Q: What sequence folds into this?
């Protein structure tokens, strides 16, 4: 009785919270379109947005061809990384799990470097597909190795296999890069972890995967709740644990693979935002997933805007802003907030 | 057979296995230690190396190669590996998380920021960079402990604070690197990869002394570690002074990792993987600090051999630790399928 009352009270507060976050996201997206290292009048931006037609002026070109795609990409990539992080932390039952530790980033980087050195390919439009393939290959390997043995893919084995795959691919990448200057040069551009310079073609390339992954992810709330209680309880509740884990990894491959391919490794969002979502809504993954989905793009876009404005006309990479500004905020939340054990 | 007898035989078998595995690991480490000093452009026999290291014979040319050139590198691979392995497993058990090695919870990143700051902005090198790295690691650990303290330190909060601290330091490091001149940036990148070949005598001596004191201490504190792993309440019921033992163990682990990073730079993966490898070899008797330390040393010595002698051009050790350690851990994960041993 009291439990159901508590849940419903929580739901009545958390539902409107989602609406508020949606509104905040809209405001941040508007900021991201109107503010930048080149100052363009608000009227000019709005005119360009209204006509949706590039009339050749600098203002309308910058707005339509750079800021709008960049903002859309920021929203999609942010949401994808946040949700992927939340799912990975749920499946491995480990607060340290994210795209970096599970080998996704290093798998993607290793494939990019291989494409450059072995196949002699160039250009960001080509890399994203290699990065995507690398991310998926890493996840498949992690899952396959962790599922060998009688008890299947337990959280500990998943986490360790992920860390091992990450280190293995990392060694491969560093080894190639240290002996091949071309590869280093190309990898640098992909690896900065930034929204800059990633415009319409990339957005159109990865958007279908990200959107499909985001929609699919919302179905996982209940099963992640079951897994959080432990494998035996989840099985007792009638869940097919192995199937859930495999499906969750499939969704993560779409989300984190696509996002990492498009923007390079961005660590903070996937690792930290799910924890912030957990602070806001407790241990229920049916709320953590949508909250991560909205909070992550807010955090990512804010950091991106800040990076564009603070040192204009230079830009500060998103990763730097997230670390220097976002991390202290996160530490404050952990220090002074209520702690709900994962 | 009564339960008491059964219990006794199981326990005896477990102790026997622990002893056997530890002895085998120690043998492997000793062999690797000698082999690293045998190979190279000037090949030596095992006897010559051992005689020279132990000062049994005087042959100026052999002594120059062994004691002057190869011993410092081999010694630094050995000590750094021992330190990383021991501190990694203490962290993992203390925080009850197989991923919670000092690489991921902020200590190494504190050292990296301080060292990169020194290299890029102060144009420092050698001892100054080592000192900065040591200070950065200790400062990061202190910061995390203070921030995570609220009527004691819980493992989960410590990990979250560690993530935050790590991300902050990494962001700052990235910023310093983007602002650096190309030459200093390359130097900083090289330091960040980590290499056992860059150690100087004085840092190495400090690490060796620290190991001689702290490794036995860690083995002594091991019983507390087991108790703490059962949870704070159970540990208290078993008579452990939880906060004191935890602080003591953390201090040991932090000092070891800080000194190791100061000597060789942030070599990834050794601290993370040494504990799990040792545990899988030990089976149900897992968790020992000494086997984990030996596994770390064996891994780093092998990595050094591969990096310097098997590659077309000699690479920093940090590049190959992943390539050497990852397949082995994956193989162990795939083959250890007994319940309780596979994790």
A:
């Amino acid at each position: 009785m009291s439990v159901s009352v508590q849940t419903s009270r929580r739901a009545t507060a958390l539902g409107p919270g989602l609406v508020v976050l949606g509104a905040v996201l809209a405001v941040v997206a508007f900021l991201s379109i109107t503010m930048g290292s080149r100052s363009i009048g608000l009227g000019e931006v709005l005119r360009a947005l209204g006509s949706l037609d590039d009339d050749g002026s600098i203002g309308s070109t910058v707005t339509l061809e750079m800021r709008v795609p960049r903002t859309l990409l920021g929203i999609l990539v942010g949401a994808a990384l946040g949700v992927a992080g939340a799912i990975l932390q749920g499946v491995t039952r480990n607060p340290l799990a994210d795209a970096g530790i599970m080998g996704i980033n290093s798998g993607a980087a290793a494939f990019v470097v291989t494409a450059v050195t072995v196949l002699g390919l160039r250009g960001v439009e080509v890399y994203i597909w290699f990065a995507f393939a690398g991310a998926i290959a890493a996840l498949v390997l992690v899952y396959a190795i962790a599922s060998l043995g009688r008890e299947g893919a337990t959280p500990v084995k998943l986490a360790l296999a992920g860390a091992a795959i990450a280190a293995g691919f990392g060694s491969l990448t560093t080894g190639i890069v240290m002996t091949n200057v071309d590869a280093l040069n190309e990898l640098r551009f992909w690896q900065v972890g930034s929204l800059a310079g990633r415009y319409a073609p990339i957005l159109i390339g990865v958007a279908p995967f990200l959107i499909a992954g985001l929609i699919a992810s919302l179905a996982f709330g209940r099963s992640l709740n079951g897994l959080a209680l432990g494998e035996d309880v989840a099985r007792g509740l009638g869940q097919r644990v192995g199937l859930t884990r495999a499906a969750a990894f499939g969704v993560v491959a779409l989300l984190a693979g696509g996002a990492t391919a498009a923007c390079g490794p961005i660590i903070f969002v996937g690792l930290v935002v799910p924890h912030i979502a957990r602070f806001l809504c407790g241990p229920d993954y049916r709320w953590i997933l949508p909250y991560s989905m909205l909070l992550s793009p807010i955090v990512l876009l804010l950091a991106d805007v800040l990076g564009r404005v603070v040192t204009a006309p230079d830009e500060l990479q998103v990763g730097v802003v997230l670390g220097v500004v976002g991390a202290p905020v996160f530490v404050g939340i952990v220090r002074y907030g209520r702690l709900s054990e994962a | 057979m009564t339960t008491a007898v059964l219990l006794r035989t199981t326990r005896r078998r477990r102790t026997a296995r622990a002893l056997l595995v530890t002895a085998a690991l120690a043998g492997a480490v000793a062999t690797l230690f000698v082999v690293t000093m045998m190979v190279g452009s000037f090949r030596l026999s095992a006897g010559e190396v051992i005689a020279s290291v132990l000062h049994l014979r005087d042959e100026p040319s052999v002594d120059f190669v062994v004691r002057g050139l190869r011993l410092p590198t081999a010694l630094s691979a050995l000590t750094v590996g021992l330190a990383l392995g021991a501190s990694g497993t203490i962290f993992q058990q203390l925080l009850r998380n197989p991923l919670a090695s000092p690489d991921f919870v902020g200590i190494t990143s504190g050292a990296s920021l301080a060292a990169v700051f020194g290299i890029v902005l102060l144009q420092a090198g050698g001892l100054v960079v080592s000192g900065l790295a040591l200070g950065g690691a200790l400062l990061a650990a202190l910061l995390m402990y203070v921030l995570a303290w609220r009527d004691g330190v819980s493992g989960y909060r410590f990990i979250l604070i560690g993530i935050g601290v790590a991300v902050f330091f990494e962001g700052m490091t990235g910023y310093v690197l983007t602002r650096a001149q190309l030459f200093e940036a390359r130097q900083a990148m090289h330091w960040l990869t980590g290499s056992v070949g860059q150690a100087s005598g004085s840092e190495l001596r400090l690490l060796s002394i620290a190991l001689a004191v702290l490794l036995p201490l860690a083995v002594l504190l091991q019983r507390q570690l087991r108790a703490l792993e059962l949870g704070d309440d159970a540990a208290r019921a078993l008579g452990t002074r939880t906060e004191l033992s935890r602080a003591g163990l953390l201090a040991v682990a932090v000092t070891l990792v800080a000194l190791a990073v100061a000597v060789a730079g942030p070599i990834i993966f050794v601290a993370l993987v040494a504990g799990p490898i040792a545990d899988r070899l030990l089976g149900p008797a897992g968790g020992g600090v000494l086997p984990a330390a030996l596994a770390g040393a064996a891994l780093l010595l092998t990595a050094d051999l591969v990096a310097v002698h098997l590659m077309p051009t000699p690479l920093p050790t940090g590049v190959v630790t992943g390539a050497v350690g990852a397949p082995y851990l994956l193989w162990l994960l795939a083959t250890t399928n007994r319940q309780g041993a596979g994790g």
